[in-house]
Amino acid sequence: MFAYQKNDFFDRAYDELAVAFAEPLQLAVVIPTFNERDNVGEMVERLRRALRDINWEAIFVDDNSPDGTAARISEIAASDPRIRLVHRVGRVGLSSAVVEGMLASIAPVVAVIDADLQHDETILLSLYRAVEAGSDLAVGTRYADGGSIGSWSEQRASVSRAGTRLARTVLGTELSDPMSGFFAIRREALMAALPRLSSIGYKILLDIVVSSPRQLSIQEVPYTFRERFSGVSKLDTAILLEFALLLIDKTIGRYIPTRFFMFAAVGGFGLLVHLAVLAFALNFAHLSFWSAQAAAVVVSMTGNYFINNQLTYRDRRRKGLGLFTGLISFYLICGLGGAANVGIGELIYADGQTWWLAGLIGAAVGSVWNYAVTSCLTWRR
């Protein structure tokens, strides 16, 4: 006759799953991933320990990592129904990944944590309890009393503090750590903010707080930021750029689309390049004006294309052969935009308006044309 032999590991796993099926879902933990294969297993084990007293699920949102992260998540999920995967192909970005993960769950409270294990998962339960007790939002903070940035270099600490001060000043938030990516939120508060979200860059917490139609009740829970468990940090200058874009979007984005603002800013830089090349070609290369002007147009348009490809349309960036076919389409579209600029300016000037107004309106029409058509054709999704 079969005799059952006690095993602590399986008994604990059985107890946890029994709780999961016996009680309503209480917390969903959203974990965006890109090339985090070696961190996934450790993350799941730590969540099991930290959240053993409640009914939870973890939703990994992977942007088609080439290192096999999605396969590793699927492997774990096959034996644990609390682990789920949203596998995104053709879509990138941490903020949009977090939003998709949140919307994939029906849990009344949703938390967000990084996959690199730098956030202290042991305070997840405290974040959940704070929301359960009545707060709209509970934030893991490095800067409140009891929190720490750990072993950061002075340079990284200075950048973080500067970003925190800038966000608090520009957007008027009172959070001690508005740059945090570690928090829990009540579903109702999330859904109220959702229509206004920018979903730009990495600072989804800041986006939610500023997008909320009402003042959120917030509780902060201090923790110490840790070193990455495995893999390479994704912090780079692009993240700083996306933070700047988020600030722009939340201040003037309701009047001017952020992408158009960037496109116009690149165009303004291109104008300076155009004038510099024109001056060099006339004064040093001694070209005719027509030749100098043509060279300046080609150089400035080429520069604008590559800068826009890296910055303005970073999420739709063209690569390989597409980089060069995109350049040809950019030349053609902006060439037509230039013709529209001159033609409309000439019509307005001939109607008796001042030269500067005619030039300004022509330039505005050309810019709108270039932005609208290159968005649809050169950098189509």
Automatic annotation (TrEMBL):
<feature type="transmembrane region" description="Helical">
    <location>
        <begin position="320"/>
        <end position="344"/>
    </location>
</feature>
<dbReference type="InterPro" id="IPR007267">
    <property type="entry name" value="GtrA_DPMS_TM"/>
</dbReference>
<dbReference type="GO" id="GO:0004582">
    <property type="term" value="F:dolichyl-phosphate beta-D-mannosyltransferase activity"/>
</dbReference>
<dbReference type="GO" id="GO:0016020">
    <property type="term" value="C:membrane"/>
</dbReference>
<feature type="transmembrane region" description="Helical">
    <location>
        <begin position="260"/>
        <end position="282"/>
    </location>
</feature>
<dbReference type="GO" id="GO:0000271">
    <property type="term" value="P:polysaccharide biosynthetic process"/>
</dbReference>
<feature type="transmembrane region" description="Helical">
    <location>
        <begin position="356"/>
        <end position="379"/>
    </location>
</feature>
<keyword id="KW-0472">Membrane</keyword>
<dbReference type="Pfam" id="PF04138">
    <property type="entry name" value="GtrA_DPMS_TM"/>
</dbReference>
<feature type="domain" description="Glycosyltransferase 2-like">
    <location>
        <begin position="29"/>
        <end position="190"/>
    </location>
</feature>
<comment type="similarity">
    <text>Belongs to the glycosyltransferase 2 family.</text>
</comment>
<keyword id="KW-0328">Glycosyltransferase</keyword>
<keyword id="KW-1133">Transmembrane helix</keyword>
<feature type="domain" description="GtrA/DPMS transmembrane">
    <location>
        <begin position="263"/>
        <end position="379"/>
    </location>
</feature>
<dbReference type="InterPro" id="IPR039528">
    <property type="entry name" value="DPM1-like"/>
</dbReference>
<dbReference type="GO" id="GO:0009247">
    <property type="term" value="P:glycolipid biosynthetic process"/>
</dbReference>
<keyword id="KW-0812">Transmembrane</keyword>
<feature type="transmembrane region" description="Helical">
    <location>
        <begin position="288"/>
        <end position="308"/>
    </location>
</feature>
<dbReference type="InterPro" id="IPR029044">
    <property type="entry name" value="Nucleotide-diphossugar_trans"/>
</dbReference>
<dbReference type="Pfam" id="PF00535">
    <property type="entry name" value="Glycos_transf_2"/>
</dbReference>
<protein>
    <submittedName>
        <fullName>Dolichol-phosphate mannosyltransferase homolog</fullName>
        <ecNumber>2.4.1.83</ecNumber>
    </submittedName>
</protein>
<keyword id="KW-0808">Transferase</keyword>
<dbReference type="InterPro" id="IPR001173">
    <property type="entry name" value="Glyco_trans_2-like"/>
</dbReference>
